[in-house]
Amino acid sequence: MNENNIQTQVEHYASLPYTVVIERCNDQGTYYVARVVELPDLLMTGDTPTEAVTELENVKRDWIKTHLELGNKMPEPLNLRSHSGNIRVRMEPSLHSSLAFMAELEGVSLNQYITSALSHAVGREERRHVKPRKVKTAK
Question: For the residues of 51-75, what is the DSSP string, one character each?
Answer without folding.
Answer: HHHHHHHHHHHHHHHHHHHTTPPPP
